[in-house]
Design goal:
The protein is of the alpha/beta class. About 40% of the residues lie in helices and about 10% in strands. The protein folds into two domains: about 150 residues, Rossmann fold (3-Layer(aba) Sandwich), CATH 3.40.50; about 90 residues, no CATH class. Helix 1 packs antiparallel against helix 2. About 40% of the residues are buried. The structure holds magnesium ion. Magnesium ion binds next to loops.
Length: about 260
């Protein structure tokens, strides 16, 4: 998005030692970046569309290769063209057990006997593993290494619990680069309450004014603002669109990848 023509090639893009002529790196002046996880580091949409595709593959294997993908996308609330999870669709708003029953009913409605519909869904159904399904929005080890090389420390504040968050960070090969982690079951009030940011800043000994908060949802940005963060950055890889985030953020980027471009 930014590295336009005429810009000198540089392996260390984003390292905050360049002159002002190269453009101000997004995190210039910051010593700490606090990231949200889902929708910010991980592509929420890809994760669920991958799961639904696997479900469709398994059901087709049990159904003489006849596919029921349109039905599955409809029930799950995934736009088949973009793979995006629709905000009020099944996956966004329905517990898993009810979603399974809804798929059975939809297959029946397509002309299958109840016993057949049950058999096909049973053949395909598997619990989603959010850790194994986690798809990073970019090369996170490289991004975090670039930030660290530029003198920026890294923390994560998430509404997910600690155990799955630690597993996910390990799976993504970034656990060692994250110095502080605030999770839903740690006891801090939930976003947009600023306590998680204050706790991380205190733990790492960095002032809020030298801290950037980066997230995909209005709650992330409101948390950063309420904490007095030096920079609040919205990213478009999750639930928030540009219009929603722009009024609440200092900057809106397509993705965290743009933090070092
Ligand atoms: Mg998020």
């Amino acid at each position: 998005m930014t590295g336009g023509p005429g810009r000198a090639p540089s392996r260390a893009a984003g390292v905050a030692t360049e002159g002002a002529t190269a453009g101000v790196p997004p995190l210039a002046g910051m010593e700490l970046a606090i990231f949200d996880k889902d929708g910010t580091l991980i592509d929420f949409h890809l994760m669920w569309s991958d799961w639904v595709r696997e479900l469709g593959d398994r059901m087709a294997a049990a159904n003489d290769e006849r596919r029921l993908d349109a039905i599955l996308h409809e029930v799950m609330g995934i736009d088949p063209a973009s793979g995006r999870v629709l905000p009020h669709g099944g996956l966004a708003a329905t517990p898993m057990v009810r979603l399974r029953a809804a798929v059975v009913r939809a297959v029946e409605a397509a002309g299958y006997a109840n016993a057949t519909a049950e058999r096909l869904v049973a053949a395909g159904w598997h619990a989603p593993d959010p850790v194994l399904l986690a798809r990073p929005v970019t090369d996170l080890p490289a991004l975090f290494a670039s930030l660290r090389a530029a003198g920026i420390r890294i923390a994560v504040a998430t509404s997910d619990d600690r155990r799955p968050t630690e597993r996910t960070l390990a799976h993504l090969d970034i656990a060692d680069l994250v110095e502080a982690l605030s999770c839903a079951d740690d006891g801090h009030p939930v976003k947009p309450n600023p306590d998680a940011v204050h706790w991380i800043c205190r733990t790492l000994g960095v002032a809020e004014s030298r801290t950037a908060v980066i997230g995909d949802s209005p709650a992330d940005l409101a948390m950063g603002r309420a904490a007095g963060a030096g920079l609040v950055v919205g990213v478009l890889t999750g639930v928030g669109d540009r219009a929603t985030l722009a009024s609440r953020a200092d900057r809106v980027l397509e993705s965290v990848a743009d933090l070092v471009r």
